[in-house]
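Researcher: Following up on the earlier apo prediction. This time include the ligand. It's flavin-adenine dinucleotide, with the SMILES given after the sequence.
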Amino acid sequence: MKASAFSYARARSVEDALTLLAEHSEKAKVLSGGQSLMPALNLRLVSPDLIVDIGGVDELRGATVRGDTLAIGALTRHADLLRSPEIRLHAPLLSQAAPHIAHPAIRNRGTIGGSLAHADPAAELPACMLALDATMIVRSLAGERRLAASDFFKGIYETALSPEELLVAVELPIRKSAAQYFNEFARRHGDYAIAGVAAQALLGKEVFHDLRIALFAIGDRPVLARSTADLVDKVVTQPLVTDVAAAIADELDPPDDQQASPAMRKQLARVLIARCISTLLDRPDLDARAA
Ligand SMILES: Cc1cc2nc3c(=O)[nH]c(=O)nc-3n(C[C@H](O)[C@H](O)[C@H](O)COP(=O)(O)OP(=O)(O)OC[C@H]3O[C@@H](n4cnc5c(N)ncnc54)[C@H](O)[C@@H]3O)c2cc1C
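Model: Understood. Below is the ligand-bound prediction.
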């Protein structure tokens, strides 16, 4: 199938893009890497009157350290998450997650802003934003809004963005002593996950002082596991890991689809969480058997 007819405008700046979005509102669609938008256009899942191409807006590209914050521009590509020394140093979770996103050709064009705005519940980067306690920087002609990642994702392909707004960057607090972990289960490497986990921990001697475990592909949006609070500031034993992994799985309400039943997704979540905890604590004895 071919896309329905649309007009095309190449934005020269953020201001230029915002002016076009304000003029055309829900009749316009932003184009970043095109790796989700182009298939959606060709399948006629979306039929905008105007495509606003922000691909040439250089101010939206790249990662910068500002004080104790890492700012990543919306046009930073998945492939850049592997190449950028700032990201590898301060947000290694993103470098661990990137190889799981599709295949090299898609990673060379797809962008972090496009992935977050698209909000596929099985996508890796939205869950990483929850684990890293990211702030999403959103702009319109009316000004800038800063949203916690947990307030940004609203449902399947649904975010807090209005049609006049552009996601311009994400900001991540730099936690120098943090340990980070990423893992997912997919049928084949490069496929969307059937269940996945992204986590960040602040560690003492064999103790979690803070722990953020985000799960994805297990509901209509990525979620932060609440029951991880039971692991903080105490000696972690195998029975405790079993109990907490089960409690986290009970928090979930996974879909029943062609990929997996809710019971299978909950079991995958239990195993992934147990592995996550044992790896973050560097305690192989607390491995998946605990689940
Ligand atoms: C075969 C295939 C396999 C894939 N596998 C995976 C996978 O395993 N994991 C995964 O996470 N993704 C996967 N993807 C999707 C890929 O990661 C996309 O690159 C990503 O979802 C969208 O990024 P993009 O830059 O290409 O955005 P685009 O396709 O250009 O845009 C996507 C949506 O976001 C909106 N948008 C884009 N940028 C902004 C912005 N800055 N502000 C506001 N709105 C914006 C667009 O209007 C559109 O609605 C796959 C894609 C394909 C084709």
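Model: DSSP finds eleven helices and 14 strands in the chain.
Researcher: Noted. I'll compare it with the apo version next.
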